[in-house]
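Exercise 3.2. Students should predict the tertiary structure of the chain below and write it as structure tokens, then compare their answer with the key that follows.

Predict this chain's 3D structure.
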Amino acid sequence: MRLTILGAAILAAQTAAASTPCGGSFAGFVDGLKQEAMANGHSAATVDQFFAGVQQDGAVIRADRAQGVFQKPFVEFSQRLISADRMQRGQRNAQAYDALFDRIERDYGVSRGVLLAFWAFETDYGGFQGNFNTRNALVTLAHDCRRPALFRPQALAAIDLYAKGMMDPARTTGAWAGEIGQVQMLPGDILAHGRDGDGDGKIDLKGSSPDALVSGADLLSSLGWRAGEPWLQEVTLPAQMDWSKSGLQTTMTTQQWERMGVKGRSGGLPRGMQASLLLPQGRTGPAFLAYPNFRVFFEWNQSFVYVTTAAYFATRLEGAPVYDASRATAGLTAAQMKALQERLQARGHDVGKVDGILGAKTRAAVQAEQVRLGLPADAWPTADLLNRL
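Answer key:
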């Protein structure tokens, strides 16, 4: 389910891709990986054993290119992911692992709802962890020249896992992007943040829920999670306000938002905190204040709609009510969104790839054009905006 993993790694991939070996014959590429692994200290025998039978996996490349689910608007996407069954099982897991979550919250400061949400979305609470051969997936993606600087180090990290007895290159399976275990972590993250949560002396992110959850908490803590602070809160808005203040690019104190008429839908706003107003489906859809911890979600996944849904689900698992979507308006079709992105590009905006997905760059461009045209600048694209462009 995860698009990408560490945001910092993505930025590094963008800057280092030009100098990272990729492409060419697959066999020659594997030989290059072997040489680098031996230069890193692995024996020739270990390297040969790891790569024995390695294959290029075309299904991995197809999965990497097919991300259509992220084209769906927030309300539709979140209703698809947050089923009644998933909510009920999350509540049961919260009770079953209550002592473990208490320990995680004490040691790492990460709220149980956050870990439960990722556990649910990544593998349906461990029920489906992916059936792609992990070694083949990582080597395939490292060979592909789309993001080699992200995946080549992960392929090499997988050799380290193998050398430590934590991975079987012929049998270990996971997600198409090489993540392993119940909360889906890349080999490099497992090496750095894998923890023995059940005290059996082993780190088993596939078979042990405590190991997976404690490891996920350690990773989130390392990414800057702030203990005891909220991440997302649903709010109500006045009928009229400066909608251009919405979006993650604008941060104000909760007192400033209150002066603009923003109120907590259930409970007051925390005092003295910085927050951004999030309107994932425009000013008529559900509205949230996003606090500093919300940005940590983007270090786990780069999809705006996925991150917002995961953060919202985490609040639901901790008792928040169902959002108010009674006035939400439908979004553009995928074809309309692509046409909009093309027209925004023609006006000089950087929308990234024309893919029909309302990501951060497209939202910023939409909001800029709404300001220019004197429209409510809530960053939600409409057919009217498309026609005006």
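Discussion points: Residues 366 and 379 are 5 Å apart (CA to CA). The longest strand covers residues 232-236.
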